Amino acid sequence: SNRASGFDSAYKETTKGWKRNLEAFAVGGIEYVDQIMLDYPGPDCNSIQGQWKSFEDMYRQGYTKSLSVSNFSPAQLDCI
Predict the structure, then answer these.
(1) DSSP letters for the chain
(2) Are 51 and 38 in contact (CB under 8 A)?
(3) pTM for this structure?
(4) Are 8 and 1 in contact (CB under 8 A)?
(5) Fewest beta carbons less than 10 Å away: which of 6, 21, 60, 63?
(6) pLDDT, tens digit, for every residue of 39-67?
(7) pLDDT at 1 (0 to 100)
(8) Residue 51 near residue 11 (C-beta atoms within 8 A)
(9) What is the C-alpha separation between 45 and 61, in angstroms, rounded?
(10) Contact 41/71 with Cβ under 8 angstroms?
């Protein structure tokens, strides 16, 4: 979530979000997504790092095949 501030809060909220989405997709038999995109970076580097760590965990668990970003400034990209 881009509204969460700080690593832990951003990690927890982002994880809650993708898990909720995967539960909804599972109703249709979808077990993973080809790509997940972080397109609303958090308010600071710690928050962005929390969001990205959550997505890395999603990737490691096999729920997505690739990670991407959008709407990031060069400074925000440097955070990850």
Answers:
(1) -TT--SHHHHHHHHHHHHHHHHHHHHTTT---BS-EEE-S--SSHHHHHHHHHHHHHHHHTTSBS-EEE-S--HHHHHH-
(2) yes
(3) 0.92
(4) no
(5) 60
(6) 999 999 999 999 999 999 999 999 999 99
(7) 66
(8) yes
(9) 24
(10) yes
